[in-house]
Amino acid sequence: MDKKIPYKIYLEENEMPKCWYNVRADMKVKPAPLLNPATLKPATIDELSAVFCRELAEQELDNDTAYFEIPEEIRSFYKMYRPSPLVRAYCLEEKLGTPAHIYYKFEGNNTSGSHKLNSAIAQAYYAKKQGLTGVTTETGAGQWGTALSMACSYFDLKCDVFMVKVSYEQKPFRREVMRTYGANVTPSPSMETEVGKKINAEFPGTTGSLGCAISEAVEKAVTTPNTRYVLGSVLNQVLLHQSVIGLETQSALKKYGVKADVIIGCAGGGSNLGGLISPFVGEMLRGEANYDIIAVEPASCPSLTRGKYAYDFCDTGKVCPLAKMYTLGSSFIPSANHAGGLRYHGMSSIVSELYDQGLISARSVEQTDVFKAAETFARVEGILPAPESSHAIKVAIDEALKCKETGESKNIVFGLTGTGYFDLVGYKNYNDGNLKDYIPTDEELAKSLNQLPKV
Amino acid sequence: MDKKIPYKIYLEENEMPKCWYNVRADMKVKPAPLLNPATLKPATIDELSAVFCRELAEQELDNDTAYFEIPEEIRSFYKMYRPSPLVRAYCLEEKLGTPAHIYYKFEGNNTSGSHKLNSAIAQAYYAKKQGLTGVTTETGAGQWGTALSMACSYFDLKCDVFMVKVSYEQKPFRREVMRTYGANVTPSPSMETEVGKKINAEFPGTTGSLGCAISEAVEKAVTTPNTRYVLGSVLNQVLLHQSVIGLETQSALKKYGVKADVIIGCAGGGSNLGGLISPFVGEMLRGEANYDIIAVEPASCPSLTRGKYAYDFCDTGKVCPLAKMYTLGSSFIPSANHAGGLRYHGMSSIVSELYDQGLISARSVEQTDVFKAAETFARVEGILPAPESSHAIKVAIDEALKCKETGESKNIVFGLTGTGYFDLVGYKNYNDGNLKDYIPTDEELAKSLNQLPKV
Lengths: 455, 455
Hints:
alpha/beta; Rossmann fold; about 15% strand
């Protein structure tokens, strides 16, 4: 086996990206704008600034600037846990007996356990710069809430996290990490907001949903002085910050003269996938290269593969701007699968538009297959992957096995977004043989899709 | 602030150690030999080989060979998660306002979450090489058991882990990681061994201890064909393998022309501390340099600072060889503090001898101070440290604050052995203000010390 390429490619500090890349600048057809839920007209900078920090709102609306300089303070923080390694999966290749070369960009080596920290620190920075005293957010599985807690602790900002009640109860340790970083964690729906009270009254005993927690966090932000709302996925600004993943991957591959053939990422709201693929899609849009890009989603929440491309609400309370996206409908209730980070009804507008233009493809996979891939990976590569990340592993293995059949030595690159230390209930169910697959029926999907707003 | 030194110093693959370093070779007075518990004479290679793999037994007894080549297979595995970064703690320095330069060698970036993997993979390799089909071991907090499970999975060996019952019940997720790596995990004391049955009969309802789990694992090894016992700390062979930590640290410091002044490690059985300091102690023994080396132990289990230097049993069942070490007596029951990895009654013979010769010093610290240091560290350095590792953080902070008083720019290096993702019960108690300090009284210590064997 040719081992001229090290197991782990680390960029030097001075090779780290100095700018984020905004793929919208190279897109001929831009993603559709956010709409104000009251007027159904494109949301203006002033409207968005009431909810988001001003500079983040500017980033959100900017379809033209290709590169945004990463502020020095954020680059300093990045240096604590970045550059993340691009790992050559020699052991997995050997295990599979494939001629393919497999690489993964590993984003799990920080205490938040995932890539979420890349955008959390940026959003906390702009909040601090604007003179705010705190931010609010929601969290489902807990990765985003943890990342934001860490970022707020670093910049000494108050951090209010609304955590989906079922996760709050099932993942007490996630909550404890956030508390250790000084965050105030509230189970959602709570009695602290009007929307929370309303949902609790309508659905007594509900264990909450991401869409509901978003509504609570937004309400809390707009009713608290010097406070704004921040979000860990879906938005353009988040994909912008997450482009650091793709830019580092691109530099690391270039450094060793490797041209990727297939690029794979798991897709929930699109933060990791969008960040990983942006610079590569940029090359495609500029006619410089071609890649086979695959978004992987759970069969239980298949927004790209079975959703509709339409304007939809981002939250249950319908207080947020509407986004045009591949969606299952904001009333869709995903099954209790173990990839909490992939259980959102919609998909980033940028990713949706790229998919609609045929620049990327999508595939859905079932939970038991995903955990099987995770186990294989953990045993040979020594990293216990998050269930979310394991969706990408599953498809990377599938692609590598195809190469085994055809004899092709493709370069397969996938994003390993994080670790599974807080997902061991899922692993236990898998180890015990108690894992189930859930695939919504066409009738179930039609029900929520029929409730899409008329825009 | 001078930032010529990067936040994280990564060695290149070709700069990684090719040999382990055996500090005993440079010691004029060698550590005392292990004694056969039946004869009270030095254990021979044949006696040890009945329990341990032959090559490991040879390493155990070899006081003369300074360098052992690291087999290619182990170096390949090391490349999956090593070199580990030597991190310059710029943010912690700034937070403390100290002129000191603080560095930490971070061993937590692998799924076992600690340095234990360095020796686990070596021991599994020699077991495989000898043609064994499996190994047995004990685990308390779970780091060692997890590391060994990963190593055995890699070499396709059967792995039987006796896990102290209280941990088995309190840390179901640790157990689940081991199961994911294919290990068979049994709560100890069990009814699977004679010694387990005996202890269960004598102390009905006991939640077990490390000493008891060791006895069970040894019995299981010697009564199962093609199986040997392996141990994650205390032994000379373990410190040999763990020297990879110190060797990498030494190379990384040299690469940037940094001379350490103070070197700090937490000490339970001595595996991390011994591994970290060995190459530096070697320099001291050869008269090449001088370092201020500090072993940090919990005030609740103070073997170096309040123990006796004497021969003692390593396990409750008294089936293992006796070791000369600083000990609190094998009948000492440490309090339920949260640093499970530091709750062993004795200390590595090598570390004990170095301490007795005055080459290293020791300090004991209390649990609440340790968690306070952990919190400070987590918030500025972005890593949630294990409670064990946080003992070293506490003393590193103390030393850095001393520098603040004196104005000295000392180079302080400490070992950050692992992450605290499975220790959040401890963090919760700290966050809730429910953490207690336990310090054994002189009377309590006298009780167990009076039961030391007459050798």
